[in-house]
Design brief:
Blueprint: E1 5-10, H1 17-28, E2 32-38, H2 40-47, H3 55-63, E3 70-74, H4 80-86, E4 91-95, E5 110-114, H5 122-131, H6 141-144
Parallel strand pairs: 1-2, 1-4, 2-3, 4-5
The protein binds cytidine-5'-triphosphate.
Residues 10-12, 18-19, 22, 94-95, 97, 116-117, 120-123 line the site of cytidine-5'-triphosphate (CTP).
């Protein structure tokens, strides 16, 4: 395969297998994978809550994956075009929860929406753990604190 740079974006908080699958599939679409990890401040604006893991931790986790060649901090949703161009991305990959929302970038790269892994999300995990009764149990805290 000739050189093909793929770029994708996400929060990747409380890293789970759905995140891994989308990264694996994105990596298969090219020869180099760049991941924009969204900044804590961007998440506050977007989701109205701070991520469980800080941007430095999320960058470290995603950046350590063998499929990922480079990570960077996504500071603003409005900078997508700039990021795509500055990393020389040939393909933009997004989960199909974003279907159609990034078609405006088809003038500068290929845009691919991948189906989400069913039945798992960071939000569902947080709710499951919070509802499990584990948090607050004596001795349970260290396992969950960073
Ligand atoms: N993703 C996926 N399958 C899942 C969950 C996420 O393919 N089950 C993909 C998203 O489509 C996106 C990337 O993983 O391309 C990062 O998603 P992110 O929003 O960080 O993860 P979610 O688990 O969806 O987080 P939240 O519940 O906070 O929305």
């Amino acid at each position: 395969m000739h050189n093909r740079t793929v770029i994708t974006f996400g929060t990747f908080d409380v890293f789970h297998v759905g995140h891994l699958r989308v990264i694996e599939r994105a990596a298969h679409l090219g020869t180099r994978l760049i991941v924009g990890v969204s900044a804590d401040a961007l998440n506050m604006r977007k989701k109205n809550r701070a991520p469980v893991f800080s941007q430095a931790e999320r960058l470290a986790i995603v950046g350590s994956l063998k499929q990922v060649d480079e990570v960077f901090l996504e500071e603003s949703l409005e900078l997508k075009r700039h990021y795509i161009l500055s990393y020389g991305a040939d393909v933009l990959v997004m989960g199909d929860d974003w279907e159609g929302r990034f078609d405006e970038f088809r003038d500068i790269c290929e845009v691919v929406y991948l189906p989400r892994t069913p039945a798992i999300s960071t939000t569902a995990l947080i709710e499951k753990i919070a509802g499990s009764g584990l948090i607050g149990m004596p001795g349970a805290e260290p396992a969950l604190s960073a």
